[in-house]
Amino acid sequence: MSHTYYMRSAFEKRASLIQSGIDYLKGLESCDCIVIRGTSGAVFGPMLAFAANRELAVIRKDKDDGHAGKWVESPAHVKNYLIVDDFVDSGATVFHIVAAMRKEHPDAQCVGVFQYERTKHFSQAEVIALVKNYQEIHSDIARKIRNQY
Predict the structure, then answer these.
(1) How far apart are CA 14 and CA 116, in angstroms?
(2) More confident position, 18 or 67
(3) Could you tell me how far CA 142 lies from the centroid of its own chain?
(4) How much is the pTM?
(5) DSSP readout, 78-125?
(6) Is 23 within 8 Å of 48 (Cβ atoms)?
(7) Tens digit of pLDDT for each residue in 52-104?
(8) pLDDT of residue 101
(9) Are β-strands 33-37 and 55-59 bridged in parallel, bridged antiparallel, or unpaired?
(10) Could you give all domains of the chain from N- to C-terminal order, each with its CATH number?
(11) Terminal CA-CA length for the chain
């Protein structure tokens, strides 16, 4: 199996995934921005942002030298954002995104995580617990990540 199997899956199921994402957004009190990081987020995040009429923010990976020359490409104002990724494993992607968004938009709140390859999604409280847990387990890495942005 290729390492890009999730891309094929996301494209093949895009209509139902987009509907699932829109339904998930309807259950949130407020969300004005979809935030992604890396290829797995880029597979589905822009499609959902467009279909749901939400802004899109991109958190670049460590060695990604984009033409904008910024770690975070986002709209000027973000109040509440939803992280979109294929699935949450270690919590590193979520931690990177939350750390970058805190620096770029200090008042913005993460309202959840939509996992397009899983049926379980994360609420705002679960994201806070995940970030705290990641910080405790990987304190050295977490410090480097926070200093990176």
Answers:
(1) 9
(2) 18
(3) 17
(4) 0.79
(5) -SEEEEEES--SSSHHHHHHHHHHHHH-TT-EEEEEEETTSS--EEHH
(6) no
(7) 999 999 998 765 555 555 677 888 899 999 999 887 777 888 888 998 999 89
(8) 92
(9) parallel
(10) 5-148 (3.40.50.2020)
(11) 35
User: Could you say which DSSP state residue 29 is in?
Assistant: S
Q: Which two tokens stand for residue 5?
A: 């199997």
Place of tokens 């750390």: 99
Report the alpha-carbon distance of residue 26 to residue 111 in Å, rounded. Answer: 12
CA atoms lying within 13 Å on the CB side of residue 120: 5
- Residue 22's pLDDT is 92
SS3 state at 135: helix
Give the C-alpha separation, 116 to 140, whole Å.
30
Q: Amino acid identity of 42?
A: A
Rounded to whole angstroms, the Cα distance separating 64 from 38 reads 9
Residue 132 has a pLDDT of 82
Rounded to whole angstroms, the Cα distance separating 84 from 36 reads 6
CA distances (Å), 5 to each of 9, 51, 108, 132, in order? Answer: 6, 23, 33, 31
Radius of gyration of the chain (CA): 15
Cβ contact 35:48 at 8 Å: no
β-bridge partners, 73: 58
